[in-house]
């Protein structure tokens, strides 16, 4: 049988739609293609299929209009599962409906994907074969959980039976099928974010079993509050929640307003998998965050010459920087630069030249362009963050020009890093080992340079006290008008928790809104953590009585809220100190001699690494205590700092 030959799609706003012929399980797969105008999508019945391509081996065949189209084994299994025995079914399947050999057509057809799934009668989801015979058990378990959590009495009993103390008595085998369900590869595929991310109803097919998509999401959402349960049984409900209605605009009154940022959405999806890494950008081109003339001009480009990976990522970065996010109503805060996360970075001009020579010009990624294949930490300067390192005046808008592969941007150098820790591990502030120095103590001694105060100047023989003031021994000790020196220990605790920013210090309620925590309560949490941790380590007297008293006020408890925020903020980041005594929380590749800068338009400070005169590598965003509310702008206005133009390469 001869191969199917695709004819170009000539009509605008048109896709191909597949009619899947009926058949018995072992019958060959067959059907026919017809052009479909997307203007009719909201009025005609069709069902797109969402599935994982699997290995790119086209070992199976589909008979299209009497001719062969090679398809993957995964699609063969999926089409056989959804095929009806007695009537045809109109479906959209990317592997057949798009000519995969035509890179120009692939690029042009991507623009329709969001509309295809949004207007569908129902989305059909093929999760894959049930190789472990777990599908029926998993779906039945989810339905049972749904009934339990919807009933007040049953839910109360479930809660009592699944406290952290009772979990050891629960049977792990009961939860094993749901663990397997949430670990299926489909939940980590980049394209499913828009395929399942609309309000269209969807049905999940796993082997011979099936269930409603919304029911699975609802159960996973209700399990959010059962943190210890999810960790104990290794249930990855976050993967399910992440993809649910990701392409539906959020309630802007909640922290979900972050999703209005295109860069934020690309960053949040860094954990997903993509066979072609360019799809990490292209899969979001139908997202509601794609606003403004610059960003709307971004198109999928699979061309081997012009659509290289560095070109695609740099094009996205340049357009978001130039566009600035103003059309979406967001203050972008240079979030594009904040999303830059390096696993390693050249330490000198010679190293940078060596990297460029090894990578080749076509494959060299500028340091200021986010590489969406890598992930180290969440973004500190997310759109809802209250930080304003650049202030709120005229310099709150970026002053930048994209010049080839370089970015020219204005700002000021504030200081130089002199001490830096090793990268901090995830959940570094949870574990306390009796008899061993705690991390909170190590950083205080080794990076901040503090020891037990025996001078009688307020420390009164304690390692942690309210006596020493932040940067009090530095040469530029004079405070600016209106500024007040805070205790060094509080500057330390705030730096490690990203300044207790609103994103870190608010609790989300069931209705999606947040309850703010007062400054006093937050400081009490930090003091409570110090007291609890040092006591557990066998050195209660390291914390002064004033701090221990503060720990008992304002509901300080054991400092769990502070440690949660610190663990989130410091994961894979470095804690550092500068020449002038500033405390810094920066990227994992931050090192001594890096420059701490404020770039106009940035919510956070940024760390730059000098190469030669005027040229720098972007190391990444950083929190610097005492520079997060326009202080550098005031210093420049007082002629203490000088504006510069930095060339980022």
TrEMBL record:
Protein name (record): Heterokaryon incompatibility protein-domain-containing protein
Top-level taxon of the source organism: Eukaryota
Pfam families assigned to the protein according to its UniProt record, in alphabetical order: HET, Het-6_barrel
Stretches assigned to the Heterokaryon incompatibility domain: 46-195
Coiled-coil stretches: none
